[in-house]
Amino acid sequence: MTENQTVQACIDAWTQSIEAISELLAPLPTDAWNRPTECPGWSVRDVVSHVIALESELLGDPRPIHSLPGDLRHITGEFARYMELPVDKRRCHTAPEMTGELEYTVIRRSRALRNAKHEPDDLVRWPAGPLSRDVTYTELLRLRAFDVWVHEQDLRRALGVPGNLDSAAALISRDIMLAGLPKVLAKSVGAPPGTTLALDVSGPVEFLRTVRIDDDGRATIDETVSLAPDVRLTLDWETYLRLACGRGRPGPVTVDGDQELGARLLAHFAVTP
């Protein structure tokens, strides 16, 4: 796949997920907008507000002028505060206002993506408040496909409408989440040099991966099979997604080998902010 084909694949994956969100919301009764999701402190309305806000920021729209209440317990730092502001601003919006704004934002963003003159390796700004940084245009599109798909799944779980667990954006998301796993094992968990982790994931997206920490403390991940890992995690794809994104209590995970290491790994598994 050429670099331009990769860009288009990311755009197509983003489009599929954000249109799926619109389809989920179209028949939604008013009271369902207030259902809680696994994102701490966020309802269905809040997740949709977050998606709208980030796409609007990428379009160059100004951030809203708004003061956050002081009693939001899920705000734990500046990054959370940055993401919360446009969400809280929309908490008084009606369902028709939300769906109308989402549809209009998707139309504008789709047009902007079609007309974009960026080359795949051009550096662009990833808007994330205190975590903002310059990334390549391709990486920005990958991150947006990942974020929108993860929130599509948040909404599907909250609304009891499963689907798209094996979509194109799901595969992009798998690669992004797996890329963060070596750091989790080596840094967050603090596993010693020589440690080996085997990961066996089943379901709509299935894969085997092995993370190894070398003698210098550097961790890498690959598709080779380790016959005697220090710890092996066996779980399904949706449980992996929820763990890697810090979503609620995970489903069943089988831990073989070093139980203490496995417990520490599961406690630090999230790779998202």
TrEMBL record:
<dbReference type="InterPro" id="IPR017517">
    <property type="entry name" value="Maleyloyr_isom"/>
</dbReference>
<dbReference type="InterPro" id="IPR010872">
    <property type="entry name" value="MDMPI_C-term_domain"/>
</dbReference>
<dbReference type="InterPro" id="IPR024344">
    <property type="entry name" value="MDMPI_metal-binding"/>
</dbReference>
<dbReference type="InterPro" id="IPR034660">
    <property type="entry name" value="DinB/YfiT-like"/>
</dbReference>
<protein>
    <submittedName>
        <fullName>Uncharacterized protein (TIGR03083 family)</fullName>
    </submittedName>
</protein>
<dbReference type="Pfam" id="PF11716">
    <property type="entry name" value="MDMPI_N"/>
</dbReference>
<dbReference type="Pfam" id="PF07398">
    <property type="entry name" value="MDMPI_C"/>
</dbReference>
<feature type="domain" description="MDMPI C-terminal">
    <location>
        <begin position="181"/>
        <end position="263"/>
    </location>
</feature>
<feature type="domain" description="Mycothiol-dependent maleylpyruvate isomerase metal-binding">
    <location>
        <begin position="15"/>
        <end position="156"/>
    </location>
</feature>
<dbReference type="GO" id="GO:0046872">
    <property type="term" value="F:metal ion binding"/>
</dbReference>
